[in-house]
Write a structure and sequence with these properties.
single chain, 280 residues, alpha/beta, Rossmann fold, Helicase, Ruva Protein, domain 3, 2 domains, seven-stranded mixed beta sheet, 10 helices, 11 strands, elongated
Length: 280
């Protein structure tokens, strides 16, 4: 996960965690085994792991009956930990060195069915959007992710709560997210200052929604300034909402208060608002 850079070692191999990459390595094999067991991996599953670090979760995935494992890691100084796994499991594993945010995930073959990962905080939100855009429409519908607890709450937040977010609302439209396990700081090295959580995301509808630029724009504009009302935020971009009377009539028709804020809308409200704006 993510904290200040400190020395870590394994069997004499030294590696300094890089703060710039948000590196906090999972050191408790029990957590890795728990994730793999919870994911219910079978012989047909192709797994994508992002940011394997020293391979704690990687090794547990490879002990499962998975058909194949793709691993993407940006830090080549971790080669002493990961390359032995490649040599041992060369027929079931591929290691891609690079920034996952620039990798064309659509080209992975065989194509992933599930994503399991301990994701650095500094790339969590853009990475999940990328997975939703590139992998989900093609069949990757199960994600099990280790995240900082505050972000996990944002992904799973209910309406009318301060943690409500565009990504969480999109997940609601596409499926569901739930926190399935809280994880204490001491299972990582360096030890982060915050708790983490394992979040399960299961997607089963509207699988191309995250690629819809109109949907993304609506949510981005609506949440741009959280303290402002929904109408005031939308009026900054959409001509319709600059005419306050007609905007108020629309909210009344939807059963919403004139002073409603973006975080207060239900998932169905977002769908109706999106459909209306799309019809203009």
């Amino acid at each position: 996960m993510k904290d200040n850079s400190q020395r870590a070692s394994r069997k004499g191999t030294k590696h300094y965690a890089k703060k710039s990459l948000g590196q906090n390595f999972l050191i408790d094999p029990n957590i890795a085994r728990w994730m793999v067991d919870f994911a219910e991996i079978d012989y047909s599953d192709v797994i994508l792991e992002v940011g394997p670090g020293k391979g704690m979760l990687t090794k547990e995935i490879l002990k499962s009956p998975c058909k194949y494992l793709h691993v993407i890691e940006i830090d080549k100084t971790l080669a002493p930990f990961l390359e032995p796994l490649i040599r041992k499991y060369e027929s079931r594993m591929a290691l891609i060195w690079g920034d996952v945010l620039t990798v064309n995930l659509k080209e992975l073959h065989p194509f992933p069915t599930k994503v399991l990962a301990n994701i650095p905080y500094n790339i969590t939100t853009p990475l999940i959007w990328q997975i939703f855009e590139d992998l989900v429409p093609l069949g990757t519908t199960q994600l099990l992710l280790m995240l900082q607890l505050d972000l996990a709450h944002r992904l799973c937040a209910e309406p009318r709560t301060k943690d409500r977010s565009p990504l969480g609302i999109t997940i609601e439209r596409m499926g569901q997210a739930q926190i399935v396990k809280r994880v204490p700081p001491h299972v990582f090295w360096p030890v982060p200052r915050v708790e983490s959580a394992i979040v399960q995301i299961t997607l089963d509808k509207d699988l191309k929604l995250a690629s819809d630029s109109s949907w993304r724009r609506l949510l981005r504009v609506a949440f741009a300034r959280r303290r402002r009302t929904l109408i005031n935020n939308l009026a900054c971009v959409y001509e319709f909402f600059k005419e306050k009377d007609q905007a108020l009539r629309l909210l009344e028709k939807m059963g919403l208060s004139p002073t409603v804020r973006a975080e207060e809308l239900e998932t169905d409200d977002w769908q109706r608002l999106y459909e209306y704006i799309s019809s203009l």
